[in-house]
Every structure is written in C-alpha cells, then in structure tokens.
Amino acid sequence: MPDLNALTRANADRWAKAKLTRDFTAIAKRLVGAKARYQAVEAKTGVPWWVIAVIHMRESSQDWSGSLAQGDPWNRVSVHVPAGRGPFKSWEEAAVDALVNCHPYLAREKDWSIGPALTNLELYNGAGYANRGKPSPYLWAGTDQYTAGKYVADGKYDPNHVDQQPGCAGLLLAMIALDPSISFGEAKPPPQPAPTPVPTPAPEPSAWGGFLSAIVSAISAIFKRK
Fold first, then answer.
1. With a threshold of 0.90, does the pTM exceed it?
2. Phi and psi dihedrals of 63, rounded to 5?
3. Which of 76-85, 94-103, 182-191 has the lowest average pLDDT?
4. Which tens digit of pLDDT belongs to each residue from 51-78?
5. Residue 23: which domain range?
6. How many domains does the chain have?
7. Smallest Cα–Cα separation from 135: which of 120, 150, 124?
8. CB atoms near residue 179 (< 10 Å)
9. pLDDT at residue 52 in the model
10. Pairwise CA distance, residues 20 & 196, whole Å
11. In Å, how far are 131, 141, 212 from 134, measured between CA atoms?
C-alpha cells in the first residue's frame, strides 16, 4: 500500500498544474446534465455528485445499464471485481451499494478537498500506479500530467500503452468550466431519519394533590348545602 499522505500531496500538486490535452467538453456536458440523478445517490451516501459522475464515466462510459462498481450490468450478479454484487433494482441502488459496501468504501470518507478526493478516486481503481510511482491514467489521462503507461490486464503493466479513456481529473476540469458550483470540501453526511416522537404520559397525581382535591370538594359540598 502506498503512503497515502504522500499520494494525496502528489495528486494535489498535479491538480494545481494540470492542463487538458484533449477536449472533454461534450462528455462533461452529459455528466453535468445528469447532475440531479447523481445527487440522488449523493443524498444517500454523502459522496459528492461530481465524484459519482466521473466514476460512472470511467467505469462504464456513463452507461446507465452498467454498475458504478465495475461496469457490469446491475440487473445481474457481477462477475468482475467487485464480483458477486447484485442483482439490483436500479442503477441508483447499485451505485449506493458500490459506494457503501465495496472497497474503498467511499461513503465513509469525509474530506473531499481536492487532494483527498483525487486519491479516493485513484484508490477506487486501485493503487497499482501509485505503487510504481506513476500518475494514474484513471485520474490523469487527457491531461499533461500523464503520458503513457497502463495496466492492460490484471497484473500486466504496459509502460507504452496510452490510455484513451478520459481521466477523472480531466473530466472534473471540464465539468467545473460548465458548472462553477462544483466545489471541493467536506461531504454532506447522508440525512438521518427523524426519530419517532415518544408520547409523554400524563403525570400521575401525587398523594398530596389528591388530599387537597378531596378537601376542596368537601368544602364545596358544605357551602352548597347552605
């Protein structure tokens, strides 16, 4: 496992320098256009909608029939890592499962400032590039922070292969240009159900209160007889 503090600093530094080398505008428009749907998952997990959006693009090219976890059809049991998930009733249900129940458990994260956010995204794909000291194409493909190198199969790294998919960081740069409301900070915690109010029982009359009540009743009866 890499030094996560060092990786977070490295990713924050790369972000500060990064420039797009490809035009992601059309893809970014589609992702921002689906903001409400991603926000529905954010409301249940606390993971920012823009994180969910770029993962969706990276894992399944924003295919709504593909699970956020690995791109497998969400209406079947998944066969790729994480395997054995599902079937689910909807894309949203599968997305919540991916963020809450699957490594690296992004729903547990609270710090979504840019360095930790990028590191969380990188770990969603795996730490293989960080272990090699290389920028992850999962993040940096399509920016000047990445040139070449990709795992073309499980455990098989090709230093000359250029990742043609858009990287998450590049997508975020393009999305921010379209939606300036995207900000990096602490995630909003998922809403908690309101507690069921417990009815307050009426207070039992005290013995002294009962005694006074009896005296008042007796006095009233005396005056009524006059």
1. no
2. -80, 120
3. 182-191
4. 999 999 999 999 999 999 999 999 999 9
5. 4-186
6. 1
7. 150
8. 16
9. 98
10. 51
11. 8, 12, 86
